[in-house]
Design brief:
Strand content: under 5%
Low-confidence stretches: 1-16
Number of domains: 2
Radius of gyration: 31 Å
Shape: elongated
Number of helices: 20
Structural class: mainly alpha
Distance between the termini: 110 Å
CATH superfamily of the largest domain: Ankyrin repeat-containing domain
CATH topology of the largest domain: Serine Threonine Protein Phosphatase 5, Tetratricopeptide repeat
Mean pLDDT: 81
CATH class of the largest domain: Mainly Alpha
CATH architecture of the largest domain: Alpha Horseshoe
Largest sheet: none
Order of helices and strands: HHHHHHHHHHHHHHHHHHHH
Number of strands: 0
Length: about 450
């Protein structure tokens, strides 16, 4: 009889454990109430495990909004604080589960209960910070970098020798990288078991072949070089060989990307060239009557804004046509490198042509509206540059993200010089037609 009673009790406990696990997937208020009743009946349920070795705290840690007092996770933790140090069959602790799903509030609750739980490592030697970096949970990584009490885990290495910085670079997350780079307690030159430092990994992560220099991987590599990060003990010839092998392996995929990009870009270039060509012969203000002096010529010819409009249309058409030619060469060239070069040049010409096209639109409307609706004309000129700003949104955001960590590493003055020179150069490469258009208009109207 005692044996049968014990078996029945174990069976009941396991059934209630299953009920506790399933309760977390229903109504939040029902979760709390049911969990409270179960724990009042038998707190030992919190020590039970399922076939994967998971405890109720593992399941509760993966839920959202569980950091408030009275929540399911809070009740389970209060009933059995030791559950923080119980791992499942894969060596994952509850804090790892919370990190993998981005539950920062739950992690804070765990750390408030026991700060030592921050250093728990799974079977692969990963802390919760490693897991957060792998899963690109930026909020958790940023929280750890800002918390001085957690500085002792920032440079911990997993079984492969990777720190959170290594993993953030492998994930290609600029947000995580900036959070880590901005903390001066993070060592930039730690090598993993392959002998690779953060700089080596960042170089390897730059997409081979055709890529945009605004890619996060390229920005990460630039930032590490700017703060004087060093390479590891791996042989650079082997490193370059592996990188070139990856380039050859992905060559077919890269060519496919070039072809698809060329087709899409060509449509845009043709549209801009067509519209600009039409605008040149449908001039604002119309034409003089044939029975007047210089009949058939534009009525606004010779004015400052007319000359600016004509030059904007001319540059827009020429640059669009050059983009089309570049795309044609990119389409039939047999050399993959030549294809990529022609495509990059065509993309640049198309981008600059868009600026000229927008300038022509704004100046043309200003000419015809300014005499009768001056405020509307000015508003159009103010709104039109949004096209240029939108085109450079990613550029501004990424440099804004890099500015703070660069200041923390190399000082304010050096960081400002580094960032400002690249911003100014990029601006000049993009807006030179805008400057040329209005300088030319001033020259033709003897305004110098």
């Amino acid at each position: 009889m005692p044996c049968l009673f014990e078996v029945s009790l174990v069976t009941l406990s396991l059934s209630l454990l299953a009920l506790l696990k399933n309760a977390v997937f229903h109504d939040p208020s029902a979760q709390k109430e049911l969990t409270k009743k179960l724990l009042e009946w038998n707190k030992d349920l919190t020590t039970q495990r399922d076939e994967n070795g998971s405890t109720p705290l593992h399941f509760a840690a993966g839920l959202g909004w569980q950091s408030q007092p009275g929540s399911v996770c809070w009740q389970v933790l209060e009933a059995n604080p030791a559950a923080l140090y119980q791992s499942d069959n894969n060596g994952l602790f509850p804090i790892h589960v919370a990190a993998s799903v981005g539950e920062r509030g739950t992690i804070i609750m765990f750390l408030n209960k026991s700060l030592r739980s921050a250093g728990l490592q799974d079977t692969m030697g990963r802390t919760f910070l490693h897991v957060a970096a792998e899963k690109t949970e930026v909020r958790i990584v940023s929280f750890v970098c800002r918390n001085r009490l957690l500085s002792w885990i920032l440079n911990m290495q997993d079984n492969d020798g990777n720190t959170a910085l290594h993993l953030a670079i492998q994930a290609g997350s600029l947000l995580m990288f900036c959070a880590l780079l901005g903390n001066r307690q993070i060592h930039l030159n730690l090598s993993n078991k392959k002998g690779q430092t953060a700089l080596d990994i960042s170089r390897y992560k730059i997409p081979p072949g055709w890529f945009d220099d605004q890619n996060s991987e390229a920005k990460i590599h630039f930032a590490l070089k700017a703060v004087d990060a060093r390479s590891g003990s791996c042989r650079q010839d082997h490193f370059e060989e592996n990188y070139n092998n990856q380039l050859k392996h992905n060559q077919r995929e890269e060519l496919k990307k070039v072809e698809e990009s060329a087709q899409t870009t060509c449509i845009g270039a043709v549209l801009i060239a067509t519209v600009t060509f039409g605008a040149t012969f449908a001039l604002p203000g119309g034409y003089r009557a044939d029975d007047h002096t210089n009949g058939g010529t534009p009525t606004l010819a010779g004015s400052y804004y007319f000359d600016a409009f004509i030059m904007a249309c001319t540059l827009s058409f020429i640059l669009s046509a050059m983009a089309i030619v570049g795309l044609i060469y990119s389409g039939y060239s047999l050399n993959p490198r030549s294809r990529r070069i022609h495509l990059l040049i065509a993309l640049y010409f198309l981008s600059v042509s868009t600026i000229c096209f927008t300038t022509a639109f704004a100046v043309g409307l200003y000419m015809v509206l300014a005499p009768v609706a001056h405020r509307s004309a000015v508003a159009i000129c103010v709104i039109s540059p949004l096209v240029v700003l939108f085109n450079k949104t990613e550029f501004w955001l990424k440099w804004a993200l890099l500015a703070r960590p660069l200041c923390a590493r190399i000082g304010l003055v050096r960081a400002l010089v580094l960032v400002s020179t690249r911003i100014i150069f990029n601006l000049l490469m993009e807006v030179w037609p805008f400057i040329f258009i209005f300088v030319w208009a001033a020259y033709t109207n003897n305004r110098f």
